[in-house]
Amino acid sequence: MAEVGPAPARRLGLRDVPIWLCGTLLALLWGAPFLWMVSTSLKPAAQVMTPVIEWFPREITFENYAKVFRYPVLTWALNSVIQAVVATGLCVLFGAMAGYALARLPFPGRRALFALFLAVLMIPSEIAVVPLLLAFIKAGLASTYAALILPQIGNVLAVYIFRQYYLTFPKELEEAALVDGAGRFKIFFTIALPLARAPLIATTVILFTLNWNNFLWPLLVTFDESMKTMPVGMAAFAPVVGTHTQLEGYAVAMAAVTILCIPSITLFLLTQRHFIRGIALGGVKG
Amino acid sequence: MRAAGSGWQAEDGGRRDWTGWLFVAFFTLPFLLFNLAPLLFGVVLAFTEWGIIGDPVWVGTANFEQALADPWVANAFWNTFLYACTIVPGVVVLGLAFALFVHQRWPLSTLARTLFFTPNVVSATVIGLVWVWLLDTQFGLVNRYLAFLGIGPIPWLTSGDWSLIGVSIASIWWDLGLAFVLFLAALQDEPQELHEAAAIDGAGRIRRFLHVTLPHLRPTISMVVTLQIIASMRIFSQVYVMTNGAPHGSSQSVIHYIYQTAIVQYRLGYASAVSVLLFLAILVVTLLQRLLLRERAGG
Questions:
Q1: CATH of the domain at A95
Q2: For position A5, what pLDDT does the model report?
Q3: Pick from B30, B141, B157: which is nearest to A240 by CB?
Q4: pLDDT tens across A138-176, in order?
């Protein structure tokens, strides 16, 4: 797949300036909610709802962040990290093995298996959330790390990305080792996997982001505060109608979500090229 | 199985090699247990009444009969349809426009690409809370800028007429990144020769877009539309964070209703029946899409 993203900048003709200006302004506007989020989070409570719009805080305070940490945010963060790291790690490793086998190893039933994977990939996981919840409750595993992690391992996306990669993987690299009598597992772990740097980075960051942001399943399966993940725990900062309880005002809510989005945005900015290429290949939401 | 297995024999000279199964077993086991089995179990569950405590009671099609007569189910499906009607065009049109812009590779286009995509990587909680604040009736930025134009104040999230639109705006901001990236990738695969030939023939920018770029993008557009329709049909978390379905169910989606019946009312069998109905709806949409595409390709 071609590089997704701008190559070296092209010269801007005079006729193009109005379109360029509009587009660039639109891009800045698209990012503006993040600026407003951070700006609000740094304002003293009394300066959040001002008669005039103030894009930047008059004085910077961290009291909103201090208020966020009165809630068990660190516990939620730890749960989120454990859940996302373990689920992503296992899914990438097992997905790479499966993708390699489906692309490279002829075994009976492999086409049927891949067709089954693709069929389930098309079905939104939300459909199966109720029976899955009941199964975990009946097994006595609800509100545990096992419940948070296990359903995230079988994400077909990893298999799909690795299979695509290994379909075009040069055979010569493995053949030399095969002649030397190396087994398939040895070849995979010493040659095929270490060389698959691009799909490794892409699937890791995409799956980590998916797991980090996962909402419905952790919401359903965690019953006590101490097992909640960050997105679920912090949703209670929503100052809205309905059955929610408002924990604090907008400034504290913005501090909470600023903390929440730092890991995924940082990871994305660091691996942007791989991330976007993987997304374009897999056609999934980050 | 025979048809599926015919490939390996040709490739492997008739020797049955089971090593591949060892490789796929690690993934396949959790996949079967936690991804495939729940789908099948859900269908069984839909025909029972099963609470958190106690044994299942087989109730036949009672859950389905009840669901089809339930005004809240109809309301949730109607709202989900409306979500798709607002989010899909928004994401497709804006995503395409943004991709065309970034594809020009003018100065700062890397920054623009990053800004257009970034909302896609944050969690629903971030999206929801930021937009609840932006759409606040009295102090939200959106209404305050609209006031300069003499519009409003619009009760985005607090009135039954507007709540669905408020949630849709946040969803477009969130979902756009994927469509944008898919369009950008397709634009970069476009053969340049046709473009240059058309330019030499004196075709202007708009004509080149309509006659060269658009036909090239057609498969990508239909893929993005399909993906986005399905994404909109599973809308839940931003609804939960922003309005929790309120006021009076006016922004409640199907998954949100499933969540409510399962968690608040503990009616797991009934919630499963509604899930099966949603699955059928998604299946119909996917098949319709396939059918329309095949017809277009054939004609």
A1: 1.10.3720.10
A2: 52
A3: B157
A4: 899 999 999 999 999 999 999 999 999 999 888 888 888
Residue A153, in any domain of the structure: yes
Residue with structure tokens 């942007």?
Answer: A272
Tell me which of A236 and B54 has the higher pLDDT: A236
Same domain for A156 and A49?
no
Nearest to A205 by CA among A88, A77, A87: A88
Q: How far apart are CA A166 and CA A192, in angstroms?
A: 8
Q: Is the same domain home to A272 and A190?
A: yes
Q: Check A4 against B185: CB less than 8 A apart.
A: yes
pTM for the structure as a whole: 0.90
Best residue in A107, A205, A211, A247 for a mutation probing chain B (most B CBs within 10 Å) = A107
Compute the nearest-CA separation of B208 from chain A (Å).
16
Q: How far apart are the first and last CA of chain A?
A: 19
pLDDT value at B13 more than 70: no
Q: Are residues A73 and A211 in the same domain?
A: yes
Contact A33 B282 (CB under 8 A): no
A48 and A78, same domain (yes or no)? no
State which residues form the domain around A44: 14-61
DSSP per-residue letters across B217-260? HHHHHHHHHHHHHHHHHT--HHHHHHTTT-STTTT--HHHHHHI
Q: Give the residue-averaged pLDDT of A113-134.
A: 91
- In chain A, which among 184-243 make CB contacts under 8 A with chain B? 184-185, 188, 209, 212-213, 215-216, 219-220, 230-232, 234-235, 237-243
Q: What was the ipTM of the complex prediction?
A: 0.89
Residue B2 confidence (pLDDT): 36
Residue among B1, B124, B188 minimizing CB distance to A4 = B188
Domains, chain B, ranges and CATH?
A: 64-298 (1.10.3720.10)
